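FAQ: What does the model actually see?

It sees only this:
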Amino acid sequence: MVYVLPSSSTKYAITVIFPFETKCYEDTSLKVDLVGHPFLSKEYVSKVYYDKNSPMLFLPGSREIAVGRIFPIMLETLRLMKNEEAVVPYPGKGILKVLEGVLKKYPDVSSRVHLRKISDDGRIGAKAVLMSSGTISLSACLEAIPGAIVYRANPLTYIIGRMLVSIKYLGISNILLDKPAWPEFIQGAAKPKAIAERMRECLENPDVIAKSRADAELLRGKLSAKNEFDAATWLIKNMG
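And it is asked to produce this:
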């Protein structure tokens, strides 16, 4: 975010919410402040939270085309995890239609899948999460829910993307921590058997659960403000 201060000589004050964004301004003389991610603000209440007694959480994304590719992988994974159930939040009618269309093709697991509108029923508890790499996945990681990231794009789009962008991880949490804290099953690696094995570890292995808590704390440290003020205080201070 760029804020222009009203003065006789125009000044620029810049605030960012991700630590890696500061590098974008290294070749300038601008002062850049990391004010902390909004998910860490006192006012923010995550829609998801860790609860060992709740079902698994599936977060296939918020774009219809992507959901159409990712949700079937999640259902095939659930098929391999007998007696487990999953809650699938959705943001609106468009995504709901896609979810329902895919679910019809998996009648053997449909009774174990619960579609829930995000704005309904308050917060959603989960003992493990299988997610795409969207914004809500960051919220799930900050809440220390153990799990994994799964993503499958159009093959041509994926190849071109890999040629143009060189990053080790797709999930924002893994990028920030510079390690696969939430293992990624991307493109050809998005195989239900391998994903199911990881999800079972999240449900049964206390070390995996404890590691998720530790990684969540590291993540909070990365996203915390590096000074004494948050975004609102920063604006007040720089308007003075």
